[in-house]
Protein 1
Amino acid sequence: MVVEFESVGKQFKKLKALQAVSFQIMEGEVLGFIGPNGGGKTTTARLMLGFYKPTEGIVRIFGRNPATEFHRIGPLVGAMLEQPGIHDGLTAYEYLQFYGGLFRMSSADCEARSQELLKLVGLSDRASGLLKAFSKGMRQRVSMARSLLNRPRLMILDEPFDALDFESRRIILDLLPRLSKEEGTSVFVTSHNLAEVEEISNRVAIIKQGRIVAIDKMESLRKQVGSSTLLVVSLARDYPKEKLEQLVPHAEYRRKDRTLVFQLDTVNGRQDDLLMHLLKSGISINSVDRQSASLEDVYFELTK
């Protein structure tokens, strides 16, 4: 077992940041950890890194307590926090060399690994560039390279996609599943971008107000909300929300793309009757589609 949380609680004065949180991360697994601001995501990551001690319960990383034995755990862990420490006066290459020294890597290994990782994150041509001139996306990518420098068996990533440009985001999205499959690296990742979490995660945990609401594979989470399939009706134009709610009270109206979304089980096999009801009521329809519930759909259904 790589990560174990057993009934973990964390309290800051009167604030209960975590309450009875239990989960595990297996070798080679990517666990997406999602929830609102203040839900407990960053507190969970910091407990893994030994920054905090739990108020109650047990945290184990590779079978050890990170709050007291991180000197033994640290060489096996790579971390990228929401506000990564960047040394603006260094070049990208010097930055990796500096951390290679902290990991006591040999000069030859650090040199080879630095070149390999800069290429991996698409920064080979900027190796000699000062970090202070890097964009947010480039700084995130060089931080990702630093988190991989010691060939970690566990990566702890807190909002790694924050403010990334498309190219930087795509590089990281492609990288993480490859690390888990090819190198057996376990990944704990928090993010507000639910589509990206869904893309890369083997399992997803949903945390709200310090408690885990659900944790499972996506298909199982879909079943928890009553259906693995949605009926999506695209409307020809915008209609008053009140009128649509009166016509079809069991549908969700997404005004930004003018769609009515139904859990398929609420239709009860009466798709044709439903569409005819809308048409007879003066609602013009462009198209009808069936699709699996997204992580965003599941999240709002489980936390509402």
Protein 2
Amino acid sequence: MALPRYAVVTPVRDEALHFARTARSMIAQTHRPQRWIVVDDGSTDGTRQIAERFAAEHDWIRVIGTGPRDRRARGAPIVRAFEAGRRALDERPGFIAKMDGDLFVPAHYYEWVASTFERVSDAGIVGGRILTWDGQSWVPDIKGAHTVGGGLKAYRTDCLDQIGGLRESMGWDGIDEYGARARGWGVYPLTELAVLHYGLRGQKQPWRRARWEEGVATHYMGYLWRWALARAGFRALRERPRIIGGLVLWLGFAWSRLTRRPLVDDELARSALRAEQRARFAGLLHGRATLGPAPSPHGGPAFWAGGAGPDEDRP
């Protein structure tokens, strides 16, 4: 089976501690990208020089820059760097992946992602399960099991075009999925495909700014107020600093709502988000399970790799 060609774009800023590990794992891929664009977003720790050394040895790796930036931020700068990488591609790939610069991806990672796009016709967004280090063990990222983490998302190019690309805001990695589902595309988290994430989400920002921006983002995405409150409460109990972190997140949402800040321009994505939140509230009230990951046909690439096709019985 011929696997689709693809490209990877990696926005980086001050990832010198981990980037070489990421690069070596990319070089080891059994199905390599036609192009890997590393977009340096104003690093000051030598990240770009490390990336350029790998690019000098491998002609499918290219390093570009976006220029200096005053402070670290999430959301808009990351998306702008990703879009700069997209524009630098010299041909249209079958799918394009946005990948962070502090990950370790197993050698078969993109082979399995590519096989999902090849075999599952409605697959619009695909990605593995991200594990983070909690100080004692590798544990699943706090993101929901039904979603693909923003650190490593692959988009069928047609799907990415239909949703209008990624939004330059915190929350871009939720808006994309709701926009895709609303247009008939499937989102497939591959639960059998683990990736190691060495950086912690938001660790390079002051925690107050990170939580505030997340609260602003929940409003921008179109969250129902009661779901935003539940999310803030959950985060207050699960993440440090306890209580106050969730409170700051809620205040960011409440301030945005009271000041009538704009909502994302994709009405279909907003409607899909709110419909899901209403359904999940109803499920919780009636004791039903919340959303799980979308099932891959016949078990997904963990079974396909053994020879079973989508129309064959699973072992």
